[in-house]
Specification:
With 186 residues, the protein is α/β, with parallel strands linked by helices. It has a single domain, classed as Nucleotidyltransferase, domain 5. It contains five helices and eight strands; from the N terminus they run βββαββαβαβαβα. A six-stranded mixed beta sheet has the order 3-2-1-6-7-8, with helices on both faces. Strands 4-5 form a two-stranded antiparallel sheet. The protein is globular, with a radius of gyration of 20 Å. The two termini are 36 Å apart.
Amino acid sequence: MQEHRTFVLVANASRARLFQREEGTGVLTLIEEREHPESRAKNIDLVTDKPGRSFPSDPHTFHAGMEEPTIPKRHEAEVFARELADDLSRRHNEHTFDELVITAPPGFLGMLRGALATHHNHVSDRVFLWVDKDYTLQDPRTIAERLAAAGLEERGQAPETQPGRQGQDGPEGGKQAPAQGLKAAS
């Protein structure tokens, strides 16, 4: 019988760690770690020049900038979210995992959801649990404990339904962990 493989992505805008969760024990084994230092840089360091200028055919009008300005740090976070989504999609195509748990701060979690939704291989359907917390600085044992408190159970067992959002489908079909359950586990 083939082992059921659960991957756990723990990420924020500048760091990501991908773990494999051992079936039966819940122990997390690090597979890969990535850094995206551009997301930590100051906006001023990411901008090389001011917006360009356009000069329309009417010499009496002037427009500075061709489009809405993008906050450089947000752009870099979106780039990193797309890189992570592309990697997860590739791994999904290679059948390296069966289900996925993703934990990230709320803003970056939204970016990851958006980036995963652009992939047509349904990798987002493999997400079993979304957790809106930043665990990137936690050790694997602490992450495993907090995920267990958030509702990550053994494969085939649904999390117990409690008041709040636990046990209900999240926006992408995976389970959404409740904020109150995570605070108690912190």
